[in-house]
Amino acid sequence: MRRSSWQDGVLGTNCPIPPRWNWTYHFQVKDQIGSFYYFPSLNFQKASGGYGGFIINNRAVISVPFPQPDGDIVITIGDWYIRNHTALRKTLNGGQLLGMPDGVLINGKGPYRYNDTLVPVGIDHETINVDPGKTYRIRVHNVGVSTSLNFRIQGHNLLMAETEGTYTVMSNFTSLDIHVGQSYSFLLYTDQNASTDYYIVASARFVNQSEWSRVTGVGILQYSNSKGKASGPLPDPPNDQYDKTFSMQQARSIRTNGSASGARPNPQGSFHYGQINVTDFYLIKNEPPVRIGDHLKTALNRLSFLQPKTPIRLADWYNLKGVYKADFPNKPLTSAPKVDTSIINGTYKGFMEIVLQNNDTKVQSYHLDGYAFFVVGMDFGDWTENSRGQYNKWDGIVRSTVQVYPGAWTAILISLDNVGVWNLRTENLDYLHLGQETYIKVVNPDISASNKTENPLPDNVLYCGALAHMQVPQAAATLATGSPFVLLAMVLISAFVPYINL
Asked: Which residues cross the membrane (predicted)?
């Protein structure tokens, strides 16, 4: 969303799309390539679907760092509850956590009947058809509610190639933990003998040991010359469902391919982030859910985010006061948790270090809109000043969603070159609903250059909150079209604001 937080589709920047209205998103994609996905961002609606893969390809003049695959396959994996999204929201609003999911979906479909006891008859499962002797690029997205998943394909290795817009040092995995909101692409070689079909598996990680096997999504990889159905046990997950050390070591091994070109014809590694002085530092800690007044809440630095009725960016444009406070603390508060609309005031062209400290018992995923950041370190225990000594200052992976393990920290570095108001949030949908988010505001102090660093208010802007009186009826609204910088537009007819995860 370069220069255009107006198109971000979250409450801090956009008013919700009213029921039976439509809204067109316009945004540039020239500055990035890779595997992303879109989804609805309001009222737990992501749990009911509405998501899908989003691919941005290299320009023809820029080569990818591997032979061109024979095919491209998108796979969405995610935990699933029998209760619908309104019931899930009601559970949380009533002060109860969601508990174990009821299953895992692959491309929106239930598991293959690999076990007659665990899987009832009549469930439609995903089948992916491939030809022998080919290379496929498979793009895997964890689009679920709140569960980390281990992804694997029976009899096949996964050669990692890219994650969320960055080509990686290519490494083979037999399985990979993919946390909520994360995206990866792998090269899959169809080099097996096709005596049978093969299982595709996404199984829950870090859940109750006695029940995890039923929280397993299973699909089928089917060769065109297959001689029979998949059989035998599912391919093994990591040995210990609670082995966070194994998972962290796996995550640390993912590095940026500094010799590959990205969206532009220059190596990704030419940006020497380890030599840049940090201008802003934030230690952001989450803790287990707590009661604030009569409500169950989650918080960052003991502040549970209260959504303003008027979007933050819209309030700035019209000089409205009192909508939010730019006073988010740079370290955890020692006072009692409270509800507030407090955001981070970033420094334009500054270099921000954020340490995410997870003092809860479950894995957290964090996403920052509008940016890709450098993941420079993660470890167990509490972060200290001495922790910087173990940072990777050379080839840390660049991505937009990162996990933080229980009782551990993750450090990221961000070059604040994208003007706007950008959401920093947990991707764990239950904790997000309860308030575990904030925003980073980045403003160009040079007013004369502001129209060069941020796009103006879009013609089809929606108004709500204190500005609701400015909204014209849908029939009279004019949708912006035809601007020469627009490379992509989506028209979504919906009752929610979809968010394009870029």
From this structure: 479-500
On whether the CB atoms of residues 298 and 436 are closer than 8 A, the answer is yes
* Residues 244 and 173 both lie in one domain: yes
> Are 34 and 236 within 8 A, CB to CB?
no
What does the DSSP assignment read for 324-379? -BS---SS--SS--EEE-B-EE--TT-EEEEEEEE-SSS-EEEEETT--EEEEEEE
The pLDDT value recorded for residue 492 is: 39
The predicted model gives 2-25 an average pLDDT of: 92
pLDDT for the residue numbered 31: 78
- Whether residue 315 is found in the same domain as residue 443: yes
Burial of 71 (0-12, 13-18, 19+ CB in 10 A): middle
What does 243-264 look like in DSSP terms, one character per residue?
-HHHHHHHHHT-BB-TTSB-SS
pLDDT tens per residue, range 221-259: 999 999 999 988 999 888 776 789 999 999 999 999 988
pLDDT of residue 25: 92
Phi, psi values for residue 343, rounded to 5°: -125, 165
The CB density around residue 460, as the number of other CB atoms within 10 Å, is 16
Torsion of CA 39, 44, 47, 52, to 10 degrees: 0
Phi–psi pair at 430, nearest 5 degrees: -65, -45
Q: Does residue 168 sit within a domain?
A: yes
271 belongs to a structural domain: no
Beta-bridged to residue 198, according to DSSP, are: 221
CA distance 280 to 283: 10
Strands (E), 337-494: 338-340, 344-345, 351-358, 364-368, 373-380, 398-399, 401-404, 408-415, 420-426, 437-442, 488-494
Residue 159 CA from chain centroid, whole number: 21
Q: What is the pLDDT of residue 266?
A: 62
Bridge partners of 53? Answer: 37
Same domain, 424 and 346: yes
Q: Which residue has the tokens 């904790």?
A: 431
Bridge partners for 79 per DSSP:
104
Q: What is the CA radius of gyration of the chain?
A: 22
386 and 309: one domain?
yes
Q: Please determine, for residue 482, whether its predicted confidence score (pLDDT) is greater than 90.
A: no
Q: Do 296 and 169 have their domain in common?
A: no
Collect all residues with Cβ–Cβ distance below 8 Å to 137 and sequence separation of at least 6: 69, 71, 72, 73, 161, 185, 186, 187, 188
User: At 447, phi and psi to the nearest 5?
Assistant: -60, -35
The enclosing domain of 440 has a CATH number of: 2.60.40.420
pLDDT single digits (tens) 117-130 = 889 999 999 999 99
**Rounded CA separation 37/55 (Å):** 8
d(CA 58, CA 450): 29
Whether the per-residue pLDDT at 268 is higher than 80: the answer is no
